[in-house]
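Open question from group meeting: does this chain pack into something compact, or does most of it stay loose? Before anyone orders reagents, we agreed to write out a predicted structure and look at it together. Recording both the input and the output here so the notebook holds the full record.
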Amino acid sequence: MTSNSPYTPEPGFTLSPEEIEQLPYRPGVGVVLFNGDGQVFTAQRSDMVSDAWQMPQGGIDPDEDPKAAMFRELEEETGVVNAEILAESRHWLSYDLPHDLVPKMWRGRYRGQTQKWYALRFLGEEREIDIGGPHAEFSNWTWRPLSEVPQLIVPFKRALYDQVVAEFGHLEDLVRKGVA
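Structure tokens returned:
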């Protein structure tokens, strides 16, 4: 698993806005997992005090192919192995962390993430879904319309999630009708 866990820095460790702007983005992947009803998997983060939901996502290990990282992250976070790719985002999508979080995440090495997103069709049965595995990040999960998901995410990721909806929103009806 990639080192995507929050990190408590040394006391007093801070970065100026200028230093943060010079940091690279952490490469990552995201998954829009559609069920047969055209709804997407969303899960509630267990490490947040707020009611933060998201779709599966995570970092790409060194020398790892983005598709391989996507399937690895999907299995680690949800237990799902029965899924097929429907589409891939045309571009890498990025978000910046709030400046106060940069020193606390990923040892202060990244300003945010740039992610390749994939839309997948879930081919398994719901009993396959297991958010309590060895790399558990979620406390709860549900299926929702893709259009609702940006309002559930932490505010600093909303613009990225809006881009994901714009990119893959057309698949909702196609999946539901069985033509995608």
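Observations to bring back to the group:
Confidence is low (pLDDT under 50) at residues 1-5.
Helices lie at 17-22, 66-78, 158-168, 171-177.
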